[in-house]
Amino acid sequence: MYNRKLATAVALATLIFGSSMASAEVIESSASEMAGITAADAMDLNMVTVEELMTLPGIGKSKAQAIIAYRTEKGYFHEVDQLTEVRGIGEKLLEKMRHKVKVVPK
Fold first, then answer.
1. May I ask which residue range the UniProt record assigns to the signal sequence (predicted)?
2. End-to-end CA distance of the chain, in Å?
3. Would you say residue 97 has pLDDT above 50?
4. Could you write out the three-class secondary structure of 75-89?
């Protein structure tokens, strides 16, 4: 609840005072840090297994397999937002797990 309020407050301030990529990074970093997750802890979508994906919120075996199938078919992920191209993963689900995943460039 606190994380959501903080993110909302920062987003509102960003809208009022101007937006930038840096502001978005601050919001994402702050939420992750408060959740106790660092960038080093996040799973690399290009290396993660089905079993590891299943530990993410809202990801069961079929969605985990769909993520791996997407990666196999399309090649490496270039950004986390590509997860919305996987069947069954929308913006809401992506936001629930965004702080737990990352993409390491290949």
1. 1-24
2. 36
3. yes
4. CCCCCHHHHHHCCCC
How many C-beta neighbours within 10 Å does residue 6 have?
Answer: 14
Q: Tell me, what DSSP letter sits at residue 37?
A: -
Q: Are 61 and 94 part of one and the same domain?
A: yes
Instruction: Dump the DSSP string for 3-15.
Output: HHHHHHHHHHHHH
Domain that holds residue 62: 43-102
Q: What is the CATH number of the domain that holds 75?
A: 1.10.150.280
Residues 30 and 54 in one domain: no
> Each residue of 45-80: b (16+ CB within 10 Å) or e?
beebeeeebeebeebeeebbebbbebbeeeeebeeb
Residue 93 and residue 68 share a domain: yes
In angstroms, the CA 97 to CA 43 distance is: 10
The tally of domains found in the chain comes to: 2
pTM exceeds cut of 0.85: no
Distance CA 17, CA 20 (A): 10
